[in-house]
Amino acid sequence: MKPDSDDIKSLIGQGEGYNLEFKESFSNSIAREICAFANASGGKLLLGVSDEGEIKGITTSNAMMSRIYDVARNSDPPLKVEISRKGDILVVDVFEGTDKPYSVNGKFYVRDGTNSQQLKRDEIRRFFQEEGLISFDEKLNYDFDLEKDFDGVVFGAFLEMTRTSPVLEKHDILKNLGLLKDDYLKNAGVLLFCKKITAFLLNATITCVLFQGRDKYKILDRKEFEGDLYSNYQDAFTYLQSKLNTEYIIKGGPREEKLELPESALREAILNAIAHRNYFLNANIQVYIFSDRVEITNPGGLPLGMSYSDLGRKSMPRNFLLFGMMQRMGLVEKVGTGILRMNHAMEEYRLEKPVMEADENWFTIIFKRPELERESFEGRGKTTPQKTTQKTTQKILGLIKENPDITRRELASTIGISEDGIKYHLTNLKNMGSLERIGPDKGGYWRIVGDDE
């Protein structure tokens, strides 16, 4: 119900609060306030009132009112507002959202007392938990047109992969899968069945880059894949396959071709990035190929409630609906064995296990590439990677014990491996709890855990 003049005076007398905001003039910040109210329990914006509650009045125009309605329509998802004029004041009534959380320009806002605050990543996670809200893959995508944007060929392939009978109508199948609601496709369905993902989700691409050497100084080749989920997965793997070396093994019969890194481990890492990435973050999956390693990185660290020690033991999907569809397609499993399968594949290849790195915003899997001229598959069988790793680790710990201030460059020079190789072993030691860094990279020192000498 729209407020009358007496209600407005009463509101102004109460002062700004959780459900009330004063604005002396119109500005772009109104989008933040509208979003915050929708994520809370609704509220009112009074335009033409100073922070102190003094009525200044405001000159309205059709253009101004159109901009306010545009904010509501263009929020993600769209939200509901009503605008009314009360004397010299413009009242914007924002309704509590029924499809939280809402964002404007990719940012989330909530009310914090009398202020509207932007949520940080961890706060968004808590917001989801506390409100019992749906995840990204469950959100309805109002921009996707089921007739013109839906890829029927990709959908047909999906039905074959999942052994789903095509007898039912498309809408009924999608509803039964939990991908369609109120005739709108959810984001999980958009990822799976779009013709071009960047038309709806700019950050859902996969970028593959081939660098010269061991750093990012010079790019030799770059591709970005922006199709449906399965096509992007296959294209990213094909790119990796085309840029990595192939070894030919002859054992008295037809020669055997072996990619320098196990295909199953690379596929698993790409799928892990697709299934577990945080789609709310404005970044995409990155596959980087260096001369000595392959890095596969996805936005979003470990899911809330999961620690580094849980890797390989627990499965905690960030995107439950999407993960379920990928499981139906036979791409992933629910038992949390993906990392174990990667480790096993690398061991069968007689290579070191991949290194996992995680921080607040990123998760990276690093595969160390073998030097085939010196480390052929047959040659690696004579010296196990575990023994080589143990020897290198012992050297590193010995040098750190002698000089806790030693740098990565000094370690690399003394041991005779690259700085990236040193970083690889240091990360492993830190993850195992055997080593910790005290202080910053420059000016800090190493401490061997449990070494009291």
Would you give an account of this structure?
By secondary structure, this protein is an alpha+beta fold. The chain has three domains: 5-132, Methyltransferase, Cobalt-precorrin-4 Transmethylase, Domain 2; 206-312 and 332-379, Heat Shock Protein 90 (2-Layer Sandwich); 384-448, Winged helix-like DNA-binding domain superfamily/Winged helix DNA-binding domain (Arc Repressor Mutant, subunit A), CATH 1.10.10.10. The protein has 15 helices and 19 strands. It has helices at residues 5-14, 30-39, 62-74, 121-131, 152-162, 170-176, 187-193, 229-243, 263-276, 320-328, 338-348, 377-380, 385-402, 408-415, 419-431, and strands at residues 20-23, 43-47, 81-86, 89-94, 103-104, 107-112, 115-118, 180-181, 184-185, 206-211, 219-225, 246-249, 256-259, 285-289, 293-299, 355-358, 362-368, 435-438, 445-448. The strands form six sheets. A six-stranded mixed β-sheet has the order 11-10-14-15-17-16, sandwiched between helices. The chain has a four-stranded mixed β-sheet with strand order 1-2-4-3, with helices on both faces. Strands 5-6-7 form a three-stranded antiparallel β-sheet. A hairpin with a 7-residue loop joins strand 10 and strand 11. The radius of gyration is 28 Å and the shape is globular. The mean pLDDT is 85.
